[in-house]
Amino acid sequence: MRLSRFHLATVKEVPADAEIASHRLMLRTGMIRKLAAGIYTWSPLGLRVLSKVENVVREEMNRAGALELLMPSVQPKELWEETGRWQKFGGQLLKIKDRKDAEYCYGPTHEEVITDYARNELRSYKQLPVNFYQIQTKFRDEIRPRFGVMRAREFLMKDAYSFHLTADSLADEYRNMYDTYGRIFTRLGLKFRAVQADTGAIGGNASHEFQVLADSGEDAIAFSSESDYAANIEKAESLAPAQARPAPAQALERVPTPTQKTIDEVSAFLGVKPAQCVKTILVRGNDGLVALCVRGDHEVNEVKAAKLAEMPGESVLADEAEIVRATGTKPGFIGPVGLPENIPVIVDRDAAVLADFVCGGNADGTHYRGANWERDAHVTRVEDIRKVVEGDASPDGRGTLSIARGIEVGHVFQLGDRYAEALKATVLDDAGKSQVMQMGCYGIGVSRIVAAAIEQNHDDAGILWPEPMAPWQVVICPINAAQNAQVREEADKLYAELSARGIDVLLDDRGLRPGPMFADMELIGIPHRIVVSERGLAAGTFEYRRRGESENRAIARDEIAQLIS
Ligand code: ATP
Ligand code: MG
Fold first, then answer.
1. 105 Cα–ligand 1 center, Å
2. In sequence order, what are the residues at sequence separation of 6 or more whose Cβ sits closer than 8 angstroms to the Cβ of residue 520?
3. pTM of the full structure
4. Are the CB atoms for 266 and 257 separated by under 8 Å?
């Protein structure tokens, strides 16, 4: 590509809401432009990168035996009602009406559509197993779209769905996809980790996420110091503590804490450690409020909480008015002692082994000291409801946990018969008997990968693309070409030669001075730069520099093509 014929539109200033490096750099390079919240145009530069990612994904999916198809984005309500997800998917589902008032959604995912396709297409076990995939635009009305294309509302996903007669066959394909994902992210040059995952709104049994490791990641992942255990913190089990609960030693005493509401304030005021306090969170249950009690130094895990029998499948905090109505007390002073009996009290395993603890006094401006379970506070059930923390024992019994941040770029699920059953997707087995198919589903956030790669690969000057994603592999920078015919000719010749070798090469023929030219090329992250100058030509060399290095190397003109390929 000759840059004079391309639309490169780098900018210096970016809006203040671009909080993370990838968002800033995608705007500065002009890869994306915002149309509306979470909705972006991919410029010609951005699309070059996106397409490279897409092609790697496609090649590896094809190699793994999956079959590409393309499903509609707009999906009828009736199909989503068959699986119960028209309601259950929640606010993320963008619902639309046509001129006849018929309702549709813009597809956030395609389990319904593919299962409908499969129930019509697949009749016999002989057609199984089969794995269909597409690379297509999705829409999810995210509560907080942010970080540019990282958490967008409209984004590009590769989604695959496999169909099987047996659970064993599903497990085989799950393994195949797990390995394929490993190959895709390795080929793209990303540092990633596969972690055990919660199955969320998609449902099903086994599930792993592929997480690109980056400090700016929205996900926390827990991994063991001594085994290959790794899990999203949403899923990571916190083991029951080994010690038993000591017997009560103190009397229950209500003490004034006029303005102290948070654990930090209360523990400092009363001179006790946060770990000796019980934090009580009130959430909306199926039947009024539910109290979740964790140790003061721990946090409630909302995903675990959402799964409690008392909960409607999601964990939403009660607001102040609800809390006052249900308890007569303001938030900040709630505790398990003397809570109205209709509020179930679910106690985390670690909080359950405390004796003589501090907790809210259930009267404004007070807390209890010397509180004890059973003696003073009713316990509905003890459960694992907290987030694991650094230093916890690994759930597999080997080593302790560390916590790192990650960006979820892929997710594989064994769905089992969850969708096939609801949509009656059956085939005849070898005995002529009708069987509900087993399903797997496998997603990759194609557009998110672009941002994730930048999070992992950037410096002060801009992006350092992993080679397979770079918009161009090489840029040729002629110096003073307008004044020097030889520089112009040599640059053209090199451009033709590298192009002929099938190398993705950019010729910066805009006629910029070296400073701004180099700055642009570093910003957009081209891995290899070749400078053609009068001085170099006199010595029979080009100047070569690899992006990220600080030294130029003089390379003989006839060696350069060799070096690059
Ligand atoms: P997240 O937890 O990040 O919201 P998810 O678990 O809801 O994602 P999946 O349903 O597993 O997402 O979708 C498959 C893949 O699509 C994800 O692994 C992620 O890479 C990508 N993805 C999901 N939501 C978004 C989004 N809002 N913007 C960009 N990519 C997304
Ligand atoms: Mg996911």
1. 18
2. 8, 10, 508, 512
3. 0.90
4. yes
Choosing from 50, 137, 408 the residue with most ligand 1 atoms within 8 A of its CB, the one to mutate for a pocket test is 408
Tens digits of per-residue pLDDT, 258-300? Answer: 999 999 999 999 999 999 999 999 999 999 999 999 999 999 9
| Best of 137, 411, 446 for a ligand 1 pocket test (most atoms within 8 Å of beta carbon) | 411
Quick: pLDDT tens for 372-414: 999 999 999 999 999 999 999 999 999 999 999 999 999 999 9
> How does pLDDT run across 137-178, given as a tens digit for each residue?
999 999 999 999 999 999 999 999 999 999 999 999 999 999
Which residue's CA lies nearest to atom 22 of ligand 1?
A: 445
CB 193 within 8 A of CB 208: no
Q: Mean of the per-residue pLDDT values for the chain? A: 96
Q: Ligand 1: which atom is nearest the Cα of residue 209?
A: 18
| Token pair 């259950």 in the structure block, residue | 88
- Closest C-alpha residue for ligand 1 atom 4: 151
Is pLDDT above 60 for 203?
no
Q: Label the pairing between strands 505-507 and 474-478.
A: parallel
Q: Can you name the residues that pair with 441 across neighbouring β-strands?
A: 161, 413
Cα(209) to ligand 2 centroid in Å equals: 7
Residue 200 has pLDDT above 70, yes or no: no
Q: Which residue out of 133, 157, 234 has the highest number of ligand 1 atoms within 8 Å of its CB and is therefore the one to mutate? A: 157
Q: Which residue has the tokens 């390079």?
A: 29
Q: Report how far residue 301's alpha carbon sits from residue 386's, in angstroms, rounded to the nearest whole number.
A: 5
